[in-house]
Specification:
The protein is an alpha+beta fold. The chain has one helix and six strands, in the order H-E-E-E-E-E-E. A six-stranded antiparallel sheet has the order 2-1-3-6-4-5, with no helix packed on it. Strand 4 and strand 5 (92-97) form a beta hairpin. The longest helix is centred in the N-terminal third of the chain and has 28 residues, at 4-31. The radius of gyration is 22 Å and the shape is globular.
Amino acid sequence: MVTSRTKFRTAVAATTMAAALLGLGAGAANAADWPALKDGAYLYTGTDGSGDVTEVDLGDIGTCHTQAQSVRSIQVVNGSASVVLYSGAGCTGSSWASGTLAQSNLPVAELSYRVVAA
C-alpha cells in the first residue's frame, strides 16, 4: 500500500532531479560563449572562439599558411571547403581536419593551416 507520504517523497525527488538536470544543461550552454555563426572560416588564439581572430580565405585552396600565434579553436560555416590545421610551422606535425561545418576547441595548439576542397 502506497501512503500519501511516499507519494509526496516521490514527487519531491522527481522535482529535484528535474531541476538538477535543467541546471546542468543551462550551465553547459553558458560555459561556451562562442561568437555568432557566420559564413566563412575563423581561427581563434583562445578556446571557445576567444582571443585574436584570423579570417581564413577559403578560396586559397592548397596554400600552407603559418600563423604568428598558435590557434586553439576554429569555426567554419561553408559548404565547399574545410580547413586542415597542423601543430608545426609549414604544415608539418600532427594534423586536425575541420569539415565544412565546425565549431570546436582544438585538441592541441595549431600553428599552420591549409584550405582543402570538401
